UniProtKB/TrEMBL annotation:
Annotated keywords: ATP-binding, Glutamine amidotransferase, GMP biosynthesis, Ligase, Nucleotide-binding, Purine biosynthesis
Every GMPS ATP-PPase domain range: 115-304
Pathway membership: Purine metabolism; GMP biosynthesis; GMP from XMP (L-Gln route): step 1/1
Keyword Oxidoreductase: no
SUPFAM superfamilies, sorted: Adenine nucleotide alpha hydrolases-like, Class I glutamine amidotransferase-like, GMP synthetase C-terminal dimerisation domain
InterPro entries: Class_I_gatase-like, GATASE, GMP_synth_C, GMPS_ATP_PPase_dom, NAD/GMP_synthase, Rossmann-like_a/b/a_fold
Gene source species: Oscillibacter hominis
Function field: Catalyzes the synthesis of GMP from XMP.
Pfam families in UniProt: GATase, GMP_synt_C, NAD_synthase
Record-level GO cellular component terms: cytosol
GO MF: ATP binding; GMP synthase activity
Protein name: GMP synthase (glutamine-hydrolyzing)
Length: 429
């Protein structure tokens, strides 16, 4: 790695991701590591210029207050105690906080502002080539932003050693499989294998209503599909994934409980037959987009709406049924069409529909109905760690409601979710 680095040692602060982003915004790379990082592990990290000890509400684990080793405190690197044992708390004022952080990073640590996407890409290309050698890589290609950027990075690094596998698990948005085939096989000339596994996934998920179990089933079944595809090819040793930093953080650390297990982090089976290639795993979402731009990907791909790895499976709440899944798919297509017509496409970070596993009384053509509600969600965020709710015009919400309740089978209500993150998460499951 060519970039200087500031290491944040996690002592239970929920502000660690924000702190890492603030340092990166100064042009200096930063990573979060556990409080019990050893001297050997620290020495193995490249170009570390300083340490930040960041305490917080989760610093007491099982009744014991966690701390770093004395070796780290006297390792010869500058150390900043940020709210550590109540000492040297961060300034509340944003300007003062940024100045204090800048002074530490540049003046105390002597770090250089050399964290750029061009440097990151050069580093990752070198690391990928070193890891993969002359072997082949399978990439889980959903067609979303993360996997598309990984594909571009891998193509730049290893070219035709990459085989992209697009799995239609029945949980994709309307028209999505066809779009993925068109873009990657026909426009980008990628080695693309298309797998129709709709029945296989939905059969596995039948009757499963726990969100974590659903994610783990989807993650494990993905791996099994890839293993089967790998056996049809020669020399496949590696699995590429679009894992990003929020996936890892939200899946839990030693001091912060999991928000949810992402299918590509907490959902991977223990008997995984592949070595993972995850070049984006230390990037926040906005940095992934910047990486895609630097790689020359078109805006239509770089700024595409985020889509969860488990797909519509986490938007069809509770046990997935085919008819309710279809209600999610059709209502989502209407929402996206209406947002595009209203000029909101590309202006709102993410918008989608959710169909819960309960019904309510309604009236259609003078006859009593007992159908599902559709929940509309539209949020804005920079890094997916926090999110605000889009102020959608009421007239647009009314038009969307009329269309969904008249065009989507089994639906008689629409609701708009006004909850930011926190206290909610972006997705419902």
């Amino acid at each position: 790695m060519k970039q200087d680095m500031i290491v944040i040692l996690d002592l239970g602060s929920e502000e660690n991701p924000r702190l890492a982003r603030e340092i990166r915004s100064l042009g200096v790379y930063s990573e979060i590591h556990p409080h019990d990082l050893t001297m050997e592990e620290l020495k193995a990290l490249p170009n570390v210029k300083g340490l930040i000890l960041n305490g917080g509400p989760n610093r007491v684990v099982d009744g014991v207050t966690i701390d770093v080793s004395a070796d780290l405190l006297h390792c010869g690197l500058p150390v900043l105690c940020a709210d550590h044992k109540g000492e040297a708390p961060w300034p509340a004022d944003e300007t003062d906080r940024k100045k204090a952080l800048s002074d530490f990073v540049f003046h105390t640590c002597g770090a250089e502002a050399n964290w750029t996407m061009d440097n990151f890409i050069a580093d990752q290309v070198e690391l990928i080539r070193r890891q993969v050698g002359d072997q082949k890589v399978l990439l889980a290609l959903s067609g979303g932003v993360d996997s598309s950027v990984v594909a571009a990075l891998l193509i730049k690094a290893i070219g035709k050693q990459l085989t992209c596998v697009h799995v239609n698990h029945g949980l994709l948005r309307k028209g999505e499989p066809e779009q993925v085939i068109e873009v990657f096989r026909h426009q980008m000339d990628a080695n693309l294998v298309y797998v129709d596994a709709v029945d296989r996934f939905l059969d596995k998920l039948a009757g499963v209503d726990d969100p974590e179990r659903k994610r783990k089933i989807i993650g494990a079944e993905f791996i099994r599909v890839f293993e089967e595809e790998a056996r049809k090819l020669d020399g496949i040793r590696f699995l590429g994934q679009g894992t990003i930093y929020p996936d890892i953080i939200e899946s839990g650390t030693k001091t912060v409980k999991a928000v949810k297990s992402h299918h590509n982090v907490g959902g991977l089976p223990e008997d995984l037959d592949f070595a993972l290639v995850e070049p984006l795993k230390m990037l926040f979402k906005d940095e992934v987009r910047a990486c895609g731009k630097a790689l020359g990907l078109p805006d239509s791909m770089v700024y595409r709406q985020p889509f969860p790895g488990p797909g519509l499976g986490v938007r069809c709440l509770g046990a997935i049924t085919r008819d309710r899944l279809e209600a999610v798919r059709e209502s989502d297509a209407i929402l996206r069409e209406e947002f595009a017509n209203a000029g909101l496409e590309g202006k709102v970070w993410q918008y989608f529909t959710v169909v819960p596993d309960f019904k309510s009384v309604g009236v259609r053509d003078g006859v009593r109905t007992f159908d599902w509600p559709v929940i509309l969600r539209a949020v804005n965020t920079v890094d997916a760690m926090t999110a605000t709710v889009e102020d959608v015009p009421f007239s647009l919400l009314q038009r969307i409601t009329r269309r969904i309740t008249s065009e989507v089978a089994g639906v008689n209500r629409c609701l708009y979710d006004l909850t930011p993150k926190p206290s909610g998460t972006i997705e419902w499951e």
